[in-house]
Amino acid sequence: MVLLRCFLGCCALLQGLAGCAPETVEVVPEIDLEAVDPSGAEVVFWYQHTTTREEALLGMIDEFNRTNPHQITVRGEFSGKYSSIYNKMMVSLQAGTLPDLLVAYQNQAVVYHLADGLVDLAPYMSSARWGLSAQARADYIKAFLDQDFIDGAQICFPPNRSVEILYYNMDWLEELGHDRPPRTWDEFAQMCRAARDQPFSLSRNPEYSQGFIFEADASRLATMVFSRGGDLMDPEGTAYTFAAGQVREAMVLMQQLTSEGAAGLLSEPYGDQKAFAVGQVLFAMRSSSGMPFVDSAVNEDGIGFRWNVAAPPQSGDRPVVNVYGASVSVCRTTPQRQLAAWLFIKWFTEPEQQARWVRASNYFPARRSTARELDSYFAENPRYRIVYDLLDYGKSEPSVPGYQAVRRLIEEAMVEVAQGGDIDGILPRLEREANATLEEF
Amino acid sequence: MVTDTAEGAGTGRGSRADGPAAETEDARGSIADTAAQRAAKRRLAAFLTYGGLVVAAVAASFPFVWMLFTSFMTRGETLRYVVVPASVEWRNYVRAWSEANFALYFSNSLLIAAVQVGGTLLFSLMAAYPLARMQFRGRETIFLIILATLMVPETATMVPNFLTVAWLHSHSPIPWLNSWPALTVPFMASAFSIFLLRQFMRGLPGELWDAARLDGAGHVRFLFQIALPLCRAPLLTVGMFTFIGSWNALGWPLLVTSTQTWRPISVALLRFVEEAGAETQLQMAGAVIATLPVLLLYALIQKEFTAGISVSGMKG
Amino acid sequence: MNTSLKDRVTAWAFMAPALLVLGVFGLFPIGYAFFVSLHHWRVKRGPFVGFEHYHRALGDPLYIALFVLSLGLFCAVRYWVKGKSLWLRVTRIGLEVTTLFAAGAGLLGVIGSGDSRLFDAFKVTAFYAVCAIPAEVAISMILAYLLFKALSGKGFFRVLFFLPYVTPMIATAVAFRIIFSPHPSSLANQIGGVFGLGSQGWLFESRSVVSLVLQAFDITQYPAWIDAAFPSMALVSVVLYNIWVYVGYDTVILLAGFSAIPPHYYEAAAIDGATAAQSFRHITLPLISPALFFISLIAVIGTFKAFNHIYIMRTPGARDSVDVVSVAIFDQIYLFHNLAYAAALSLILFAVILGLTFVQNRVLGRKVFYGD
Question: Is B162's CB within 8 Å of A273's CB?
Fold first, then answer.
């Protein structure tokens, strides 16, 4: 009894103390952007890049610091993986210790925006003094900018993008009697079955031979659905549409191929890439940012087969691909630092810088005119060119709050389907549960 | 509430007194034919003992062996699920060490761990003593409140602790964020340590204290001169676990540090996971580098555990 | 309680630094979580909503009240109704049974009307605890005793046993995810193959172990509750991982306990002709009971609080069969961005752990033997 009283007393006391924590007063003063002076501002930038990409990024930051006319200093800080950055940002939002610029996926940015942690970049883009010229503005791939325009505000800005593409083993495909990658999902299914029956001649493990490995991941499903002309949400973005025809078709194909043994379900991280690299699987569907890894894996391991990339199989005549990638967001700190952060992004996305970034990271640029700087790069990397040409056909996944939770629901549903579940029961349930998350926001 | 009962004491001492006296009668009568039996029993016991230990050792170490083997592979071999690498790729270790700037992170980890261990040992020992050996009002309540802190889920402590540390950072002369205080102070008192030390101290014979009292020693002297040497085993245990906790901590250091200056080694390991694919062999090389110091420390310390407790104070 | 003022001051002075640190970094979070849970709180504070989140989690206040009051009455009866007379004893037992039934009814009501996701998580946590704790404690006890008795090579074995706990989780988790992968060539499947076990889903398998056994016997029609009432294969794999990690930890502590037993007790016993079994039962067991009690308490608290080692083994294939309460809380923060509800759940978890510890303390605490 003493314990209980003591405990309650402590809680009450602590609650009182906690109540003294400063409440955030959201008064956004009208700032005249034209009059703000960013001189000498220090910008803290949280990113998740590692190894070679990080080196390149730090090199570029260095160059910006040296050459920008306002003596702005950007300090790049490795802050963990995407999830660690999100974690850190959530905590910082509460403590008021925000960075100035950070890498964020759209659905993460939406959450930050809900907490008034971000700044709308639209005024910066259209500012007379600091913004983009009409020409520059048009140079950005509209779909990318639109992707980052949510709830009436430009809450993030695209420094680069990736595309989800089909990797295919050219040598194996030829052995199976085909000279080009599958154009439709039917052809894809046929080729997978053929691969199951006829292992790759160079494979060191011919007992495990399949056409494809499905990953239970929302982005994979999105790619399959987009390529059939469908979408995960209705056009207004108010409700999920999992019971629609295209989703069903994608799920049916997945279930069919898995039960026939022509495809498998991913069981460990990057397993499909690994299997592809050693010739155990004919196709892989992954982000274009994986190309360097596959390249070195295929060659380093010694099998060294010819491989290439293509758009995933399509249903219509106009291809639709899943374009995604983390953007950067500017946090609500001080007008000077916000402006300085914007100036850095603007510099970073100029064609010359984009070309440099592309070379180092293998991401795709957000501005068309970058192509001019990349002629030699295209010549050296024909695969890159193939994907580059697909950028105009990009479509993006939902960026509504709660999408993170829906991703998990999708993953679980995909596993259920791949293990033989009843699609007509699973999909409506998925749609119901996904829409329920929308209500929570 | 925790109550120590005399029941255990009674059972322990009482039955021991009863047993042997009766047995000796029988033993004397059949000494001759039990010698061989005893030798056989000893061999069986040794076989079972070592057999069990070996099985357990294999089970415990095989993932580490896997880790070691993987760290010596080329990437091609990791892709092919090869079990034993064809040759030893020391390059992985060189790359892991230099690419991830292991030297800096290493010394950071050492420093942070040292501070945290020192603080924990001191504070926990001091706190466990009154809880174990002194009588005062509210003792059990305080002990339970301390235990209660052990039960708070991790997810609940992250944000408030960060808020506290951020507040302290802006209101104190020494920096907290991005520096050793934030990384060590929140963990300097652990209910776990206090609990363990208390259990051990309660097991110390009461006569020790009485004897010290007669010699005119106060609490402070008793604690640091008499009790502390006797608590070597639990102190080393506490120190060991605190060291490991500090060494492997990842979530909190990522939160409270933003630059390399004070980041520990666990963060360095993160740098080998790329968006496109994990360099497993580098990761494992890094993990081996990260694990070895702790293992070394444990190997050195564990001899101390068996040194046993000297009760020479009692014999005199 | 003949403590002088000086003694009391000394006691509190000794405890002060630890209490300060624990108070600020251990207790304040509880108060803070309580504060957060009373509001609508996504990332920033919203309006005050009182106990709405608790209502959502635990259901009808009527049932909550029934449960809490009945438990309180039960404790009161235990504490106050004492007596040897038959009449008193019968009344006491009768009251205890009634209050327990009432508490049970209240609990059922709470489970029925509250957040089913939360109670599923508690169920998974209970499975996890029941599977992991006895195994962990038993294995570490055996190992510690074997180590204690072994004559040579102790150091070598000790280091090996400690490896799992010491190795960074990045490495051990990756290793186990590969070992327990459903791929036919994974280590678990190969070892299983030696025992005649077909290729299993392991971490990807959300069906319960019992239903898998039934399927092995070609029984494909079984009631749905078989899957719900037993741990899934994924959870069993996670349990194995956790036992593997923590056995070394427990063994080290027990070993320190064994080492603390003065050897002259054993010498004296041997002189008196005691057998190994007898000295174990009458010397070792009582003298190691404080350490054993410590481990079991820490194990219970630890398994209910467990997060990292479980979260890292989660796969989509396991569905929600490995989602213990702390994982569910984590999801509330990172998937649903609902800090307030997460805080409420954290406090509920805290209360449950507190209750369990309390009960464990009363039941097992009496059996611990201290030196004096």
Answer: no
